[in-house]
Design goal:
Blueprint: E1 2-3, E2 31-47, H1 48-52, E3 59-61, E4 71-88, E5 91-94, E6 99-111, E7 118-126, H2 129-137, E8 143-145, E9 147-151, E10 154-158, E11 164-178, H3 187-193, E12 198-201, E13 207-210, E14 212-215, E15 220-230, E16 241-244, E17 250-261, E18 264-265
Parallel strand pairs: 1-16, 7-8, 7-12
Antiparallel strand pairs: 2-4, 2-17, 3-6, 4-5, 4-6, 6-7, 9-10, 10-11, 11-15, 12-13, 13-18, 14-17, 15-16, 15-17
Length: 268
């Protein structure tokens, strides 16, 4: 299957979906870890029926109120995490951790009996075992070990035995711009999708939520064009396929501060 990029001129934004938004500014939790992310954030649009198969039974896609009601966004995030640190009582303690990471996410989902919009993590891979253990055990991110590298403009993800899982060809466009003043189309929409509470499902079926703090004040951003290939089933219900990004839907970032809160019970 090929995921077409011709569904729309930009990926669907939060306002297109039926559901309420939790005010992130009212969140009183604290961040417990951070790193600097260097890599790509790629949005693609898939047929809704294909995306729905990837959700756990407790979650469903939010209703799409746009004229293109038969599609839903799927996001790939891939690159390097550097300058890892833990945060205790607001004090950042550097650990020097550096590893590669891949994530596949579905924004704009909600509990089948709920009303609030969330972003669901379908699968993650990392090259650093503590990040894998913590992400799966506590956050429900279905995280596994993997090998990742850039081979020129192509990002490659394999199992530890080097069986190909995913690769993406990325064509960078234009000059770097400061993230604090980025005017790229859909940049703010991308930030909105990952300001939503992040829902994961632990091995025992428990749903837990956390927040990502994606800060671009010290980052650089430029546009990119990407085509991804899922080369092996990453999760149940997912078949190999090629996916183009949507126009203005891939961002090449450098030095984005990625913070995460401790997971807690979800508010649906």
């Amino acid at each position: 299957m090929v995921c077409s990029r011709s569904f729309m001129d930009a990926f669907l934004t939060r306002g297109a979906f039926a559901g309420s938004v939790i005010d992130v500014n009212a969140f009183r939790g604290s961040f417990v870890g951070e790193a600097r992310f260097h890599g790509c954030i790629m949005f693609s649009n898939w047929p809704r029926r294909e995306v729905a198969r990837l959700l756990p039974p407790e979650l469903e896609l939010a209703g799409n109120n746009s004229a293109l009601s038969d599609v839903h966004p799927v996001v790939f995030i891939f690159g390097e995490q550097t300058d890892g640190a833990v945060i205790f009582g607001g004090v950042t303690v550097p650990t020097g951790v550096h590893y590669h990471e891949f994530g596949m996410a579905i924004p704009f989902v909600k509990h089948v009996r709920g009303r609030y919009l969330h972003t669901h993590i379908v699968r993650m891979y990392a090259s650093y075992f503590p990040a894998v253990w913590n992400g799966s055990t506590h956050y429900g991110f279905a995280k596994e070990m993997g090998k990742m590298s850039w081979q020129g403009p192509v990002f490659v993800l394999t199992t530890e035995e080097e069986a190909l899982l995913f690769h993406a060809a990325v064509e960078r466009e234009g000059e770097w711009s400061p993230g604090s003043a980025c005017m790229l189309p859909s940049f703010e929409a991308m930030r909105e999708a990952f300001a939503l509470p992040i829902v994961g499902r632990k091995a025992d079926g428990t749903l837990v939520c956390s927040y990502f703090g994606w800060a671009f004040s010290e980052a650089s951003v430029r546009a990119a064009d990407a085509c991804a290939s899922i080369d092996a089933p990453l999760v149940d219900g997912l078949t190999p396929r090629r996916c183009h990004d949507v126009p203005s839907g891939t961002f090449d970032v450098r030095g984005m501060t990625w913070r995460v809160t401790w997971p807690a019970k979800c508010e649906f």
